[in-house]
Amino acid sequence: MGEDVNLQANAGGEKPIGTVPSPFLRLLTGLTVILSVFVVFAFYTVQQVQWLEDFQVNVVQRNRKASLQLLRLQNDANLLGISLRDMTVEKAPYPISAWRSEFDRLHGDMEDALVRESADAPNDLGTTAKLNELRGVLESFWKQAGQVFDAAQRGHEAEARASAQYDLEQQRKIISGIVARLFVYNDQAQVRAAQRIEKVYSGFKRDNLLVLAVLFLIALATGLYTLGASRATFSKLSLQATQLQAQSEHLRRLSWKLIDVQEGTLREVAHDLHDEFGQILTAVGIMLNRVTQKANADPALLDEVKTVKNLVEETLQSVRDRSQMFRPGMLDDFGLERTLEWFALQFSRQTGITVNIEGNFGDVHVPAQDGIHIYRIVQEALSNVARHSKASEAQVRLAHSNGELTIEIHDDGEGFQPLQQMDRASGEGFGLMGMRERARRLHGVLTIQSAAGQGATIAARIPLQKGWLETAAGEVKKL
Question: Which end of the chain is more exposed for a tag (fewer CB within 10 A), N or C?
Fold first, then answer.
């Protein structure tokens, strides 16, 4: 094939018509081009896969570790809140100095968590600034805590108790707020990482199809061979996408775990308020009744005792209301609808915003473990109305149709632009994220509709869960 074929002249003495060039050089050139394209494509594929693997290890895994450290900091902040609550009650069983060892333990744990979080946190200006702010607040908190314990050690127990109750608790709330914001930044970094991986994957897919087209035009056989190699590459990319999805699901479970921890903490706080403080105040009221019976001969003393008794009764009612706000016990006793009606009355009384409950769930009974998530959605939505909307009236609409429950919260306030402020990962509020996670926890969806000057409507659609209708039918039979 490498030699030219000479066509001899015929017997008539005619000159040869020429030579037929060998296709060797063209085939060699084509083969060289094919191999070059293939080598470049293979190198490109390896580089992209290696980049995705390195990116997953260096970014996605670090984000997961950062989330774990943030959970650790949040849990320590909650434990500080419980300790501050216990050490600042008027008749605490232990002196303030007895809590020093617990504070020292939490101090060491939070410092270690902060160091690990700084090493694994996303490298952006917002996260760096918040970490620096958290370091400053923690340093101030521990310095103030040391002063409180020193004052208690010197015998200034009342002064130390007041400083712990107001100054330390305020700083602890700031710490919890900073950690919550760091959670948002970490989620945003995860979204950016997913977007970057998706961009690389899309570009790689486009380039791959182009290479396949070129190889097909040059030689079908080589193109098929390249297609086989590309399928192997796609399999590896699919595995990477599956692993990324698993990481996202793991982060979602961590978010649900955080919600469970929050509910557990609120349940304990509500229990302590209602049982312990309620019993103490009830006992004080009984003692005041006895004093009133013995003070009939002294009208001035009797008036003062009645004033104190009224104050104790108002405090007792306030403690009970707050315990119900934290975790309403009536959710277990009377169901979700009665609890929402009670909350609407309490909210209207405290904020001056009229809240109307419209509709009902019919024969559906939502168990307390599921109903608490719907209650928190309504609670957070109305809290946003009170804080931001400047509304004078709100409606909570309940409905049951087409196998799902619908809960709508509408207000007549100023409204906002939800597409610009909440649907973007860089601007979504932590409270709204929590509402969406609670709706997803019940396999539902949460939507937001609003416009400037037209109020806002937050709607949650929750599919009926197994046993909700059966539970309702069972209760009817009991009645």
Answer: C
Instruction: Match 């617990």 to its residue by tokens.
Output: 102
- Who's near 201: CB < 8 A, 6+ residues apart? 52, 237, 241
Q: What is the pLDDT of residues 116-158, one digit of tens each?
A: 888 887 777 888 888 888 889 889 888 988 888 888 888 888 8
- 374 vs 339: CA distance, rounded Å: 11
- Cβ neighbors of 433 (< 8 A, separation 6 or more) are 184, 187
Cα 304 from chain centre: 50
Segments making up each domain of the chain, as ranges: 25-261, 330-478
What homologous superfamily is domain 330-478 in, according to CATH?
Histidine kinase-like ATPase, C-terminal domain (3.30.565.10)
* Lookup: tokens for 355: 């809240």
CA 158 to chain centre: 39
Work out the pLDDT band at 10, boundaries 50, 70, 90.
very low
Q: What are phi and psi of 447, to 5 degrees?
A: -120, 155
What is the per-residue pLDDT for 358? 92
Do residues 244 and 56 touch, judged by C-beta distance below 8 A?
Answer: yes
**Separation CA 448–CA 455 (nearest Å):** 11
